[in-house]
Amino acid sequence: MVAKKQSSLTEFYHNKRILITGASGYIAWNLIRQLAEYNCTLVCFSRSADIIEREKGDANFEFIVANYQDEVAWKKAVKNVDIVYHLASQTSVYEAEKDPLADYEANVKPIQLLLDACRKEETCPIIVFSGTSTQCGMPKKLPVDENVVDDPITTYDFHKLQAERWLKFYTRQGWVRSVSLRLTNVYGPGPKSSSNDRGILNLMIKRALNGEELTIYGTGKYIRDYIYIDDIVSGIYNSLDLKKKFGIYNLGNNETEETEEGV
User: Which one is predicted more confidently, 87 or 8?
Assistant: First the structure.
């Protein structure tokens, strides 16, 4: 992926209609703050509009407040859209293990409804899907590249991979164009994650600023790849420079640290 210049981004997003799902979430909050600068229409789809901020800028805002299992809402959401940033998801590994069916409803069914709505509306947008680096399972060597053979070991990762494969299937049929971004451990400013087992660095920073004790799970020897939120947003931008109809990219810092070092 090659970084786009500001002038080319302004031209690219001009008059585009952009759907952002999970619009009240952590990554979407940061993405919206930057997209608001462009002369485009941002369709913010969320289960709650209470914490979606209408950022200052040249963008027009529309809001859809509905359940992600609402087929009618998806039909409305994809109408005339050029780009979809599908960031809505349930992000807790532990919650997924406790209730796999609920996790399926949160992480697989919404993208099925999104894709089928695109097929029926014949919009053929570019869809950027927010996946996870862990959906490949336990790789035999590091660093992990996009050619790794996927073998997920958790319900959460299995469902993320399943969602990605639905995306790939619909792309092959010519109904959408798409890219899947497999994100590593993201940190930086923004609203608190809805899952307690996410955003560990942000939580530790907050505790440190409040003079609270810092705690580490287990021995602290677990390996993580941390990436700053602005780099994630930049990666999301640049992923749209596609030379093919479907692409998978690992989005990380390419440097590993033990959790105790990060803290």
Answer: 87
Specify the number of domains making up the chain.
1
Is 260 part of any domain?
A: no
What is the amino acid identity at position 187? Y
Q: What is the spatial distance between Cα 117 and Cα 62, in angstroms, rounded to a whole number?
A: 19
Q: Which residue has the higher pLDDT, 194 or 139?
A: 139
Within-domain flag for 214? no
Residue 247 β-bridge partners:
179
pTM, full prediction: 0.86
Encoded tokens for 97: 């293990």
Reported as a single tens digit per residue, the pLDDT across 29-54 is 999 999 999 999 999 999 887 666 67
Residue carrying structure tokens 């287990």 = 218
Domain holding 40: CATH number? 3.40.50.720
Residue 260 token pair: 């105790």
**Is position 262 within any domain?**
no
Phi and psi at residue 13, to the nearest 5°: -85, -5
Residue with tokens 């799902």, as numbered in its chain = 21
**Domain around 85:** 6-190+219-251
Q: Is the pLDDT of residue 2 over 50?
A: no
Query: Do the domain assignments include residue 139?
Result: yes
Is residue 204 within 8 A of residue 211, CB to CB? The reply is no
